[in-house]
Amino acid sequence: MTILVVDDEELIRNVIREYLENEKYEVLEAVDGEEALKMVSNHKIDLIILDIMMPKKDGYTTLKEIRKEKNIPIIMLSARSEEYDKLLGFDLGIDDYLTKPFSPRELLARVKAVLRRNREMEVYEVGDFVLDLQGHTLKIANEEVKLTPKEYELLVYFIQNEHIALSREQLLNKVWGYDFYGDDRTIDTHIKMLRNNLGKYRDWIVTVRGMGYKFESDEKISS
Amino acid sequence: MTILVVDDEELIRNVIREYLENEKYEVLEAVDGEEALKMVSNHKIDLIILDIMMPKKDGYTTLKEIRKEKNIPIIMLSARSEEYDKLLGFDLGIDDYLTKPFSPRELLARVKAVLRRNREMEVYEVGDFVLDLQGHTLKIANEEVKLTPKEYELLVYFIQNEHIALSREQLLNKVWGYDFYGDDRTIDTHIKMLRNNLGKYRDWIVTVRGMGYKFESDEKISS
DNA sequence: TCCTTTTTTCACGCGATATTCATAAAAATT
DNA sequence: AATTTTTATGAATATCGCGTGAAAAAAGGA
Known about the structure:
2 copies of one chain form a homodimer. By secondary structure, chain A is of the alpha/beta class. Chain A has 2 domains: 2-119, 3-Layer(aba) Sandwich (Rossmann fold); 123-215, Winged helix-like DNA-binding domain superfamily/Winged helix DNA-binding domain (Arc Repressor Mutant, subunit A, Orthogonal Bundle), CATH 1.10.10. Chain A has helices spanning 10-22, 33-42, 59-69, 83-89, 104-119, 149-160, 168-176, 185-198; strands at residues 2-6, 26-30, 47-51, 74-78, 96-99, 123-126, 129-132, 137-140, 143-145, 166-167, 205-208, 212-215. A 5-stranded parallel β-sheet of chain A has the order 2-1-3-4-5, with helices on both faces. The longest helix of chain A has 16 residues, at 104-119. The two termini of chain A are 37 Å apart. The model of chain A has no long low-confidence stretch (mean pLDDT 86). The structure holds a DNA duplex.
C-alpha cells in the first residue's frame, strides 16, 4: 500500500510519514500540486493525503487534475473546519477530510477506513441506482436491469473510472482486451445499448466528442 | 438470522427494524446497555447494532461486558465521526462502525458484510426448503431430497455464498479443489442435476451469463 | 469380482450476444 | 448555409455460451 503525502510544510510531511511507515505503508512525498501530479502518473499510488493550502497550485486544483486521470482515494487536510463546506460543494467525491491539528491516531483511522472502504467497494450506489459487484447485478428503483456481459463489464469499467474521459482505444484495450482488433463503431453500439438499459440515467454516460466517453453521475447536493 | 438493535431513540430503532425485517432478518430491540445484556444471555443473537451514546450504560461499557460473555459480531453507531478515533483506541475488535446519519442501504451493506464474514451456519431454512448442515440432508416440504455428494457440496457452497455471483473457475477451485482440471461443461452438468433435484426451487440457481452462477432464494419483491 | 451409482466428457442445437455496416443525426468547421 | 467530421441508430450477420442428453470413465458396495 503506497500513500502519497502532499503538503508544503516539511514538518507535517515528516510527522505523517513517520506514523504511516510505522504501520508498514509505503510513503511518497510531494511539496506541491505540480510534483504530486508527476508522482501520480509515475507511481502506483493507493491513497493520497492532500493539503488544501499550498503555494503554486492549491489542493482544490490539484484534486481536480488528479481526478481527471485517476480515481485514487483522497483524504483532504485543511486548516480551518469551515473549509469543509467548501469541500462538500466540490462534488469531486473526496473520501474523507481532516482539520489541522489532528491526532496521528485519527489520521491513521481515516486512512485505514478509506482503504478498507475502497477494497470492499462492492456496491456502487447513487440514488436508486445500485450496482452490486458481488451479485453482478444492476438495480434501478429496486428493479433488476438485465445487462449482457459486455454491457456489464463496460459499466463497471466506467464506474471505476468515474469523472475520467476514456478514449475508445482505452475502452477497447481495457474492456475488450489488448488482443481485440475491431471496429470503433462497436463501442458506439455497446454504448447505445447500455444507455438504453440505464433508462433515466442514460445521460450518465457522457459523450466526449473527438475523444470517447465518460461516466458521471450528477449527484446534485441540495443546499 | 437474529439482530439486536440497541439504541435509546425509538425512531432510530424503528427505522433500522423496518429495513432489517424487509430483508428477512429477525429483529430484537433494547433501549439501553442493561437490557441489551439481558437479551444477549436469553436469546440466540447473530449480530448486534450498538449505539455509543446511551443513558445508563454507554456503548463502550456495554461492548466490553458483552464481549466478556459472547463473541457476537458488533456494529457500532456513533453520532460524530471523531468518535471513530476513540473506538479504534478501544481495540475490542468491533466488526464495523457507522456514523449517524447513515443511509439504511449503507447499514444493510455493513450488516451483510459482517454476517458473511462470521457465517457459521447449522441450518439454512427458507419456506419449506430446509438444508441441515449437521444432518447433511436437504428437505423440501418435509420430503428428503437425495443428493449425490458433489451435488450436496455444490449446494452448500452456493448457499454459503448467497447473492454472490460465482465464476465457473471459482466453483471448480472451491468445490472440486484447486488441483482439478476439468471441462467447463462438467459444472453445467452438475448444475443441471442439482436443479432437477431442487424441483420447484430450481430457479434459485441463477445463471449469470458470461460469468457463472449464483444462488438466490426468492427474488426480493420490490416495495 | 460384478453391478450400481456417481462423475466427467463431449457434441449438438438454439437462443442470446457481439460485431459490422449503412445510413441518419448531430456537432464542429469553413 | 454548406461542408466536413464525428456520433447515434437500426438492422443484418456472425459468433458465442449454455442447456441438454447420452455415453464413457471412475468410484463404491455387495
